[in-house]
Design a protein that fits this description.
Order of helices and strands of chain B: EEEHEEHEHHHEHEHEEHEHEEHEHH
Helix content of chain A: over 70%
Strand order of the largest sheet of chain B: 6-7-8-3-9-10
Structural class of chain B: alpha/beta
Structural class of chain A: mainly alpha
Distance between the termini of chain B: 48 Å
Oligomer: heterodimer
Strand content of chain B: 25-35%
Number of helices of chain A: 13
Largest sheet of chain B: 6 strands, mixed
Largest interface: A-B, 50 and 66 residues
Bound molecules: adenosine-5'-diphosphate, magnesium ion
Largest sheet of chain A: none
Number of strands of chain B: 14
Number of strands of chain A: 0
Shape of chain A: elongated
Chain lengths: 278, 321
């Protein structure tokens, strides 16, 4: 195939003309370069649609699995359990998808395209910001799919459409900030395998040892205190509040605090490593 | 600081742990030429280039590109350079044109201009028909070309090419050489690394031989060759039974070791002084040893490398297999 493609030979004159132009356009603005990276991410989805599995098929499987697996056992009825479970499982699923941001960056580094981006005269964070913008779209898509499916299964949010939008907004803010943890790890870890392993090691306890599946007051004291400060629990509290129509200002504040801490530590750390990557 | 120089380094050092990958490199590379970095795998070529391209911070020494410090004035340096790394720095999932449009946009071209520039480059590099194919379907030569095309979206004043022809077939290699020559004739300075002596010989105006992080020789290819002597004398005996006597005579006259090979009739020797050759050959005739053929060749860069490092080069070792 490649040999068939490679039939055209180079044209000396055109080559000389193409090289002769030495005009350098003005540097792109941070917004423009970020959007260019966003369109790269969209093109990658177009060419490798399989990567949408994690935001389409997985959420559906997760929701069905947990609803029917635990619904009867824990809450007695699936419809009732769904009211409690859906906000939590939504948070868990989207939080787990954030991991792929780090993996994509790690792949870029190993493939060498990262080096090219770093020698361009652009606002450096735009490569990450652009990719994260598209990730926001992916997270929104995953949320939409889960909420729609939940609705079909009998989920009825008391918070109404505003509550649902507020809940998704909370998730997006939190996940945008959480993503910088994975970009940091993506810059540190050498192989995709080890990166996956470390990411899972962080994510599994964070998502499972939380209030996603059970009410923390049923847990032994020492475990309850971990669950209570787990940032995922804080997010789930706010998301449940929005969806059930009884969100408190305190719950929202804690999400902002947790997100802020992730962002303030890991965004600069990512950029430092990005600039000084060996 | 000399402003006529594209690259000037003093005592450049990079260590990885205890290992000194680049160990005190001094370079003065003039503008508008092709400069070759020649060395075996692991010599420190990539590490040096990555420092000069502002991708890696040096641990010691300093370097200026067109008079700008690579550490403190990295942004200014980036405005004038471009790097084509050892491994394709292209998004393989995207098509050729998508890649070039992306880079053009990142360089600051507006949408329409970016498209036009990408199309122009694809045509110039013989990639028109492959423009809408994903790069992962490209052959090695096409990949290299699109990679170089991406590096000259804005023609840089200095282009780094890290092993641009490693693993390419001869036709693709010649195409890359043509690109390099065209770039230089248009005023770009090119620093390329290679493991192939022939490539350095063909393409580079000046060559630095690098081994274990140190530059062990520097000069034009003829200077390097001259530094190891006049060249190699090859002698073919008409009668291979004269071999032992011929070896004795030649080694005495040329004051050097005589190399033999599987072919019992042929002998060779590194000659320090060309005038000794005529004498030695005359001596053979006097002893009635008939020579069917002889030649005095300029030393190849392979020989230069062997003399300088005591190591065989990859191309020589491959040749033996
Ligand atoms: N990131 C790194 N970490 C540790 N060692 C490295 C790293 N990069 C290169 N090296 C080591 O530095 C030496 C020089 O490598 P390199 O510059 O890639 O050589 P070359 O390009 O000439 O083949 C090698 O011994 C290599 O193993
Ligand atoms: Mg290398």
């Amino acid at each position: 195939m490649s040999n068939q493609l490679d039939q055209t030979s180079m044209n000396e004159e055109r080559l000389r003309d193409a090289i002769a132009s030495r005009t350098r356009p003005k540097r792109p603005s941070p917004i423009s370069s970020s959007l260019t990276f966003s369109s790269r991410a969209l093109l990658r989805i177009k060419h490798v649609p399989e990567q949408l599995f994690d935001v389409t098929v997985f959420p559906v499987i997760f929701l069905l699995m947990f609803t029917y697996l635990f619904g009867g056992a824990i809450a007695g009825s699936t419809a009732e359990y769904l009211q409690f479970l859906l906000p939590g499982i939504l948070v868990m699923t989207v939080a787990q998808i954030t991991m792929y941001t780090g993996i994509d960056l790690n792949n870029d580094i190993r493939k060498g395209i990262f080096d090219r981006f770093r020698t361009l005269p652009i606002w450096l964070p735009s490569a990450l910001v652009g990719a994260l913008l598209v990730d926001m779209v992916r997270y929104s898509g995953a949320s939409a799919i889960m909420i729609t499916l939940g609705f079909i299964l009998g989920f009825r949010p008391d918070g109404g459409i505003i509550g649902v939008l507020g809940a998704v907004g909370m998730i997006l803010i939190f996940c945008f900030c959480l993503s910088w943890v994975w970009t940091t790890l993506g810059l540190i870890m050498r192989s995709e395998k080890s990166l996956m392993m470390v990411s899972f090691m962080v994510l599994f306890p964070l998502t499972f040892v939380s209030n996603v599946f059970v009410d923390p007051s049923t847990l032994p004291g020492w475990l309850e205190s971990f669950v209570d400060v787990n940032p995922i629990s804080l997010l789930v509290d706010a998301v449940r509040g929005f969806m059930h129509g009884n969100v408190t200002g305190e719950a929202i504040m804690w999400v902002f605090v947790a997100s802020g801490i992730f962002f303030v530590i890991f965004a600069p750390l990512t950029m430092y490593l990005y600039r000084n990557k060996k | 600081m000399n402003h006529e120089l594209a690259i000037e380094t003093k005592g450049l050092v990079k260590t990885f742990g205890k290992h000194r990958a680049v160990d005190g490199v001094d370079l003065s590379i003039p503008k508008g030429k092709v400069y070759g970095f020649l060395g075996p795998n692991g010599a420190g070529k990539t590490t040096t280039i990555r420092m000069l391209a502002t991708l890696l911070q040096p641990d010691g020494g300093e370097a200026h590109i067109f008079g700008k410090n690579i550490v403190t004035e990295a942004a200014e340096v980036r405005e004038r350079i471009s790097l084509t790394g050892q491994y394709a720095s292209i998004d393989e999932d995207l098509t050729g044109i998508e890649n070039l449009v992306m880079i053009s946009r990142l360089m600051g071209y507006k949408k329409k201009e970016a498209k036009a520039r990408a199309t122009e480059l694809l045509a110039a590099f013989g990639l028109e028909e492959a423009a809408k194919k994903q790069v992962k379907n490209y052959s090695g030569g096409m990949r290299r070309r699109i990679d170089i095309a991406a590096s000259i979206v804005v023609t840089p004043d200095l282009l780094f090419l890290d092993e641009p022809t490693t693993g390419l077939d001869p036709r693709s290699r010649n195409q890359v050489w043509d690109i390099v020559r065209t770039l230089v004739s248009a005023g770009t300075t090119v620093l390329l690394t290679t493991q192939y002596l022939e490539e350095a010989d063909q393409l580079a105006d000046r060559i630095a031989v690098i081994n274990q992080g140190k530059i062990i020789a520097e000069g034009t290819s003829s200077e390097l060759k001259a530094s190891v002597g006049a060249g190699t004398l090859n002698v073919r005996l008409a009668d291979s039974t004269d071999r032992e006597r011929a070896i004795t005579i030649l080694s005495e006259k040329l004051q050097t070791d005589i190399k033999t090979s599987g072919d019992t009739a042929s002998l060779s020797a590194q000659v320090g002084d060309a005038s000794l050759v005529a004498e030695a050959l005359g001596e053979l005739v006097q002893h009635r040893i008939n020579v069917s053929d002889f030649s005095l060749g300029q030393p190849s860069l392979d020989e230069v490398f062997l003399t300088l490092t005591g190591q065989k080069t990859e191309s020589e070792e491959e040749g033996k297999q």
